[in-house]
Specification:
The protein is mainly alpha-helical. Helix content is 83%, strand content 0%. The protein is built from 8 helices and no strands. The chain is globular and about 65 Å long.
Length: 178
């Protein structure tokens, strides 16, 4: 019973939250995989269709890399789910793996900010070609979207950093040695 009393609420809550999030993400990833399998002929036809030469390279890359991105996200969700189980059970491998997943999440969110800025710039460069005469200028909408998206990514990265810091605290590390 003494070991149960030593368990921090922080670790339990973080593990449970990420079990739900990663479980849902895994379910979505499986559904995306099924969708890709069911639509493989259509997807192959579209992938092999020449894209307009004026389409920004980042959009072409994203389209070509879609199956690999879906697979990577599924793998990340499964790994996060497994590490959250280890975290909840107070296994040190689970704590270490969860910290690694949080570090990967920080890197992903920093990359998302860079990608968000690049996509917004590319879309704003394309805007004059797609805006019809007399229609409102959407530049402000793109800038607000970029700022909001970047702010969310930075906030998530900071949150993940805080979780890593807490999981490395001596009192928390001691829970995983018992």
């Amino acid at each position: 019973m003494d070991r149960l009393q030593q368990r921090s609420t922080f670790v339990t809550v973080v593990a449970c939250i990420f079990l739900v999030l990663a479980g849902f993400g895994t379910l979505v990833g499986i559904m995306q995989g099924v969708m890709l399998l069911l639509m493989r002929e259509e997807l192959a036809a579209v992938v092999h269709t020449p894209v307009p030469s004026d389409m920004p390279e980042v959009f072409r890359w994203m389209f070509r890399a879609m199956p690999a991105m879906f697979a990577a996200m599924l793998l990340a969700n499964v790994a996060t789910f497994a590490s959250a189980i280890g975290l909840l059970q107070r296994r040190n491998w689970g704590r270490v793996a969860f910290i690694a997943m949080m570090a990967l999440g920080i890197a992903w969110n920093i990359a998302a900010v860079v990608l968000n800025i690049g996509l917004t710039k590319a879309m704003m460069e394309q805007l004059p070609a797609i805006t019809m005469a007399g229609e409102p200028d959407l530049r402000a909408v793109f800038v607000v979207g970029m700022v909001a998206g970047s702010a969310v990514s930075v906030a998530i990265a900071v949150l993940f950093g805080w979780i890593i810091r807490r999981l490395c605290a001596p009192a928390i590390v001691a829970e995983f040695r018992a």
